[in-house]
Amino acid sequence: MKLNNPVTDIPLIGDAYFRKLKRLDIKTVGDLLLHIPTRFLDLSSTSKISEMKLNETATIIGQVISITNTYTKKGRIVQNAVLSDGRDTINIIWFGQHYLVKSISPGTLLSVAGKLGFWGRKKSIISPSFEKLDPGKETIHTGRLVPIYPETAGLTSKWLRSRINFALKNIKYPNEYLGDSELGGIKAISLPLSIKKIHLPKNLKEWEKARRRLGFEELVRLQKETIKKKKSWRKNKPFGKIKIKLKINEFSKTLPFKLTNSQNQAINEILSDLSRDMPMNRLLTGDVGSGKTVVAAAGIAVCLRNNLTSVLLAPTQILAEQHFNSLKKLLNLDKTDISLITSSRKGNPDSKVIIGTHSLLHKSKELRNIGLLIIDEQHRFGVEQRNILAQQRQVPHILTMTATPIPRTVALTLYGDLTISNLTEMPKGRKKITTWIVPSVKRKRAYKWVESEIKTHRTQAFVVCPLITESDKDSMKQVKAATKEREEISKLIPSLAIEVLHGRLPSMEKTKIINKFRKGKINLLVSTPVVEVGIDISNATIMIIEGADRFGLSQLHQLRGRVGRGDKKSYCLLFTESQSEKIITRLAAIKSIKTGRELAEMDLKLRGPGEVFGFKQHGIADLKIAKWTDINLIKQSKKYAEKMPKQSL
Ligand code: ADP
Ligand code: MG
Question: Domains in the chain and their CATH numbers?
């Protein structure tokens, strides 16, 4: 039996079981063998019957003296066996397994693992795991570390164990092709041994070594895919040639501020990418407010000189409008050069700079014959856009931008085909944002404070409503909550101009409200959680987040980043009704931690990577065997994959 044989080659796996196994993504014998246990039951210590203690789990080995079906008073059928270990006997009870009486005859040697309790007045082991013992045969369900697997309806760990055990015995193991020094380098045992020990280890140390070997295999496969993607992207030709270069000094001279060092570096990297005969695929990361837009503007500036079109896509219409206005100013463009295309505005598709929302990605007509494609706040980093552009003969240079920090291990694997520029510093002169946690008893007082702050300093405030569910950030429910919120706040501070902004408003209306806010005609803007990314209004200095405990730390940080952009002192108020110590501690973390990277790492620890990076939502398969924290293993897998490995599972 080989790893790529269908799993139905294993006895007792017919159509019905095959369908169930498919739910666990298991189709081949190899898939089954790489369905690895999530934990182990420690049934390794075997005891004498006399040593068993009430309510403790132990494994007993003994001979069956008798086994019968009996009925309880209520008419339930139970199996009652008596087991002897040579000195003492013990009663054993199973439920509803009448066939046992036929399959276990007196005299059979059994290994039984379970808890000692009472059946009526008799001390008994109730409903234990068990297996028949043949002399010299290794146990798999009892008397050892017993593997527990991810299960699905109708597939128990016990059943999986027995089928995996069959496969382990009959498999023709693949050869190990790593040398001893390579195995030593990743602290692992050989491939054939790993396949066995991942299921049936003597101890957890042995299991970890097996996991590392198989995890390495998994990572190398992932790395090879990434390398392939990278190579095939690089085979494309960029649309249009960049002949006239742009010097960074020329560009920065035109700006109203001095670029930070990391902005300078990122711009240099982008300009050098653009001058190559290979399309760029770069990801620009940088905390909220680090100034990613101006970096993108440099790319647009060089395309303009070369008479090539640039397209910038934003996640919301409001952001698209904001980019439109700020790029027009930054690059000193007039109406014919730059155009905004949204669901409500046709714009001029012949402009050399086109700003739109992500939905333009699906209208590939507009995306033809362009030199540079910039995608702001996009979290599917390159995957989708590459798919969309794949049919074209000539592709644009792509720059994706995000405030989500990418952990090193993810950058080295999943995003290994992207080159990454990172803005590590904030523009000078940013004021620290003071963050407070406000319990509900202080709510009224807090709003009174907001009122006086707004009046004395002529500043403005955002209020973000509680997140009802993550999946519908802008649902009707959410809209109702925002409207109600506004009424309540109006009662508390009737002298202020308050308006509601949410995604369900007609787009003209949205634009009107945002512009009024920008001009200072609205004091307090109540919004649904959708209005979180990218809004840049420097006179707003207060961010109020209602129901702050419903948000992830990184989300809170992004929201907080909406203020503190001008030279006035800024505040973030985290409202919560929760009194749970755990939640308050989590919120308190955001008071002291200032950077998105630190918070993302905390979120990673608290909520796990699948949640934080939304792998499932983005259709990215999570690692099954290796872990995202295995930085060394990941680095070595990359090195190995790059030198063309001989073979892999
Ligand atoms: P983000 O990285 O969150 O997209 P933006 O590009 O919106 O940040 O920039 C935030 C604000 O900082 C903008 O108002 C922008 O004009 C300003 N800004 C960008 N770079 C600098 C700089 N080097 N010095 C001062 N202000 C800057
Ligand atoms: Mg931005």
Answer: 45-143 (2.40.50.140), 237-423 (3.40.50.300), 433-611 (3.40.50.300)
